[in-house]
Amino acid sequence: MDRLLLLLPTTTYRTEDFLAAARTLGVDLVCASERPNTLEAHLPDSFLTLDFAEPDRAAAVVADFSRTHPVRAVVGVDDLTSVAAAAIAERLGLTSSGVAAVKTARDKHQMRECLAAAGLPIPRYRRIALKDDPYLAARGVAFPCVLKPLTLSASRGVMRANNVDQFMAAFRRIAALLARDDVSVSGDGAQFLLAEAFIPGIEVALEGLLMGGKLHTLALFDKPDPLDGPFFEETLFVTPSRLPADVQARIGEATADACAALGLAEGPVHAELRVNAQGPWVLEIAPRSIGGLCSRTLRFGTGMTLEELILRHALGRPIASLDREQRAAGVMMIPIPRAGRLRAVHGEAAARAVAGIEDVTITAHREQELVPLPEGWQYLGFIFARGESPGAVEAALRDAHARLSFEID
Fold first, then answer.
1. Residue 399 pairs with which residues in a beta bridge?
2. Domains in the chain, please, with CATH?
3. pTM to 2 decimals?
4. What's the mean per-residue pLDDT of the chain?
5. In what order do the strands lie in the sheet with 279-286?
6. Percentage with pLDDT > 90 across the chain
């Protein structure tokens, strides 16, 4: 039986869906986290504790484990585990993109440098040291601009500045964010931020799978809500895209070119791009699948989940079809409207009753302390819909969201 190693940080939303896919495939599953599992002492063959921030050390631990428990595939489920997964795969000779390519993609400045060298369409950018004077740093950029940490994800710490005062405020806010106890950054990620030109236009997300260096587009999501700042909280994702076919083709080509420039060759990728009259602009190429619970919008072939597709590829098992189901689908990531403690949620039954709504999943817990963007990274929950058209899906998601209310003290 194939043995699969899943890297599952304690903060991820993805555990349940990846475990379900592993059960479907009938693999011998080993789960690794950064904290010891309470069952690890009793089931040492099924659990590992790994330091994801030290990829080489994690690879050495797994290599030792694999001498008596051979591992057929390793999959990291999110940004925090992508480099460690690549290091483990490289050490064991398993299917994966190379460590150097994944590291480059994980650092927004290194990624920009690589894509710029390849002549790809990206925003003008500049790396700025956090020890620098923010006023002097602001004099070296053009406005409007976007400031962002080098290694955080989910739009955490991403802020638009239209003038020097806003630049200095965003600079200081990012510095304070990176110093928080719940933020784990090191190296350049703890010492620098990135300032880049704001690119006007619409934003899309491409979900893809790299196989032997070739990018297969699995889905292209429209983001119907404008993302113009001052923060960039993502809410609606709807697929298939309503953009013209030629524009969609150019988005796919730009993403494939970016993956090739970075050296990414195997596994899932999640790309974020802006599109305007000049064409597509590459914002992010992440060597992992879509975050949160958003993958639940995607079904392939006769009902295969995105997680099962990813695991099949890593295990070298056949994939009957990469074609997404024909019905439109979408998700709303329910934003946190303000900071405070969640006391109650109202309207769930009414939201679920909206035509086209498939599920409403509230992931925030009662009495949980809520932190909105740009300091936070979580959502109140997720709303899922399917329909005959992208427009119908978007309308259902907005209707369902309007029926929910949250008591936050």
1. none
2. 3-103 (3.40.50.20), 124-197 (3.30.1490.20), 327-409 (3.30.470.20)
3. 0.95
4. 96
5. 279-286, 267-276, 202-211, 214-222, 236-239, 328-334, 381-387, 357-362
6. 94
